[in-house]
Amino acid sequence: MSTRVEHALEQLKTNGVRITPQRHAILAYLMESMSHPTADEIYRALEPKFPSMSVATVYNNLKMLIEAGMVHELTYGDNSSRFDANVSDHFHVICQKCGKIEDFSYPSLEDVEQTAEKSTGFQIQGLRMELYGICSNCKNK
């Protein structure tokens, strides 16, 4: 088990969250795969290890992990939500053919936030940036 997963589990315990084997497996899968899976993909990946686990169990645990600040839910149009265990500031690039999502880092867009605040009067509390294109696998097909 990675140090990152261990640290996350300790943080959950500190916040009074009981660590079930399924919860541990879902969090570890998200942190180790970093593939932004859907709940169904998580269920299919873990079902062989946890045959009694339901899709509802996956959704309920994801909801708890989101509330605990360990996971972000990514919603893009009509597609199923995807889940991201990387809660640091970062952005996403999304393939328009296969839907693959990859993380990328970019310096702070603080100037964009400040400009938006000045021109609208809003107090900006966050931003989400997505870039769309064709991934290398789809491009080479």
TrEMBL record:
Has the keyword Cell inner membrane been applied to this entry? no
Please give the superkingdom of this protein's source: Bacteria
Q: Which InterPro entries match?
A: FUR, Fur_C, WH-like_DNA-bd_sf, WH_DNA-bd_sf
**What keywords are annotated for this sequence in UniProt?**
DNA-binding, Repressor, Transcription, Transcription regulation, Zinc
The family line of this record is: Belongs to the Fur family.
Indicate what this protein is called per its UniProt record.
Peroxide operon regulator
- Which species is the source of this protein? Paenibacillus cookii
Q: What is the lineage of its organism?
A: Bacteria, Bacillati, Bacillota, Bacilli, Bacillales
Gene it is expressed from:
perR
